[in-house]
Amino acid sequence: MRATLRHELTIELDAEWLRRRFRAGRGASSGVAGDADADATDAALKPAAVLIPIVLRPEELTVLFTRRTTRLRSHSGQVSFPGGRAEAHDASPEATALRETREEIGLAEQSIEILGRLADYCTRTGYRVAPVVALVAPPFDLHLDAHEVEEVFEVPLSFLLDPANHERHARVFQGREVEYTAMPYGPHYIWGATAGMLVNFYRELAATR
User: Fold this and answer.
1) 126 vs 39, 119, 136, 149, 206, CA distance in Å?
2) Does domain 2-206 have CATH number 3.90.79.10?
3) Where are the domains of the chain?
4) In angstroms, what CA-CA distances link 19 with 85, 113, 166?
5) Among 8, 9, 176, 190, which lies 20 to 30 A Cα-Cα from 76?
6) pLDDT at position 168 over 50
7) Do the beta carbons of residue 34 and residue 121 sit within 8 Å?
8) Are 105 and 66 a contacting pair, CB within 8 Å?
9) pLDDT per residue over 74-126, tens digit each?
């Protein structure tokens, strides 16, 4: 159960390395905010949280993603992490991430070990997202919410932590050109805030000394 972090030096990391890293606290990259044109000082940003689930596969560490259904009004068909908007009864971002993960894909909390949080990611669509990093121990059963989730899939963590796979693109959004990150993997197009949070994750781990 290992993954490779490619930076100035190649780091071989495993579950225990990640546990130590998050016990040590955040590094110098914790100020990375989010979408380039998002206003992190906007008090109207809606709180949300996602789970970044690192699956402890015997061969290698992977990250679990969902693909949203085309029935949804926003971000339909896109690749995302399990998660969503905070509710008033959620005690913390971790509680939001766990609740949304249970509701969307049926992953039981007993399989999840929360490691910690990355810096909030502010989106140009009006959300302040808390990315909650966790380890997930197989085997586990998933039960997808057919209204929200079309499929789940996993991508090797080593692929996501390789900056050679962090592509920069631009598109027109609400009449203006905006830049975004993409990490295409096979038939899956990981982009936008999901890819941006993965870049933040890479920077956070790469800042470790």
Assistant:
1) 9, 16, 29, 22, 28
2) yes
3) 2-206
4) 27, 10, 25
5) 176
6) yes
7) yes
8) yes
9) 555 689 999 999 999 999 999 999 999 999 999 999 999 999 999 999 987 88
